[in-house]
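Exam revision sheet. Question 4 asks you to relate a sequence to its structure. Input first:
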Amino acid sequence: MGLLLRGYLALTDAGIYWPDEIYQSLEPAHRLVFGYGLLPWEFVEGARSWALPGLVAGVWEVLRAVGLGTSRVAVPALKLLFALVGVATAGATWRLARASGASPLGAAVGACAFALAAPAIYFAPRAMSETACALPATLGLALALDPKGGRTRRLTGAALLVVSVFLRLQCGLFCAGLLAILAGRALRSAERRWRPLAETTAVLAVGALLFGLFDRLTWGSWFHSARVYMRFNLVEGKASAWGTEGALYYVTHLFTSMPLLSVAALALVCLGAARAKGLTLLALAFLLLHSAIPHKELRFVFPLLPLGFALAGLGVDRLTGRARRWGVLALAIPAVCSAASLHRLTFGDLGAYPGRGGTSAFDDFGAINRLLLQAGAQPALCGLFVSAHLAWTGGDTYLHREVPLYGGGRPPPSARSFNYAIVDAARAATAGMHAVARDGTFALVKRFDGPCEPDPSYSWRLP
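Answer key, structure tokens:
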């Protein structure tokens, strides 16, 4: 069910939750593969690693090699891949619960709760670092923390945590937490076995060097993306320009996005915490550190969800007899209800856009993106204007034509700079414009046959 719901969203929802799902992954990847695309400031100044766009570019390069490199195929295919990653993360949740001591039943209930949680489904098909890193982070912790796993599994888990850091820098908290848990185990053991900690530290250290080297090869200096990102967010505090929230923001919106499920999961986490104190403290530290940062978005704590549901699975096992059956139902029924109510999610439930709290969280700007696909198929297209800020569109990822793209933040220099436009459909009809296609309240209109006036000052930088 989790796979079907994620796949359905991947194929039907062309909307945008936040511009990062386009401009931190798809658009830079499009530029790598096809040679053009709008560049946000992060990929001008180097505040992001090229790891995630590089992986996306690899997928698209394969599709292009077999003749499937059009946006109509490449974008849904990439979203489906992320949907599969989301379902695989549910499997990793099962592994983490088992490694922490849960029974097969308890682990399965926790994993299914993640698979059916509304926010987990909603974010899964979106090409964001938070959804991408959750799988290697969860599976890495599962392998590295398994007391019966042995040396190979532990070091493989540490390597997967390194991968998660490449995808999202904040996953370094999981690396630090893993070392703290292994140190605690060494101190509690009679033999004081420090070798597991030393070997894991060595793997993470090598991973850190590889991260720095990757930045050196892609940005020109060691740890460039990490340094620029941390300076921007922690030193200069510029992320607050996109809004600040109170300390209880994540707790509040984890509840509003899955009310019954969050209450049931929290109760079971409290029961299971004693069986996995290290994992519980790690999850709590991840939540508290994110809560201390003024700029907050619910997606930032997405990697926390698998840990929480794994701990909830442990909580099921703390119950016995008939109480255990009720514990299973107490988590399973709210999980099914959460999935069933997925279509009712609003931006207010997800803690986004205070002025649009009652607006559906689905297919926002989707009409514009589908019309971008239509515009890209017009043979005479030489310039396009969109009546929205370009950051809230699918950019060249959807347009897939190397022509000037104008809109909010980048007005055209003249009326002859573009021969097609995506505008309000009613206004276009009143003005007598020829509508090539229509989607919702927007229409793709043709203004003239072309050619367009050249725009020598056109910049591919996202305004």
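Marking note for examiners. The first helix runs from residue 2 to 12.
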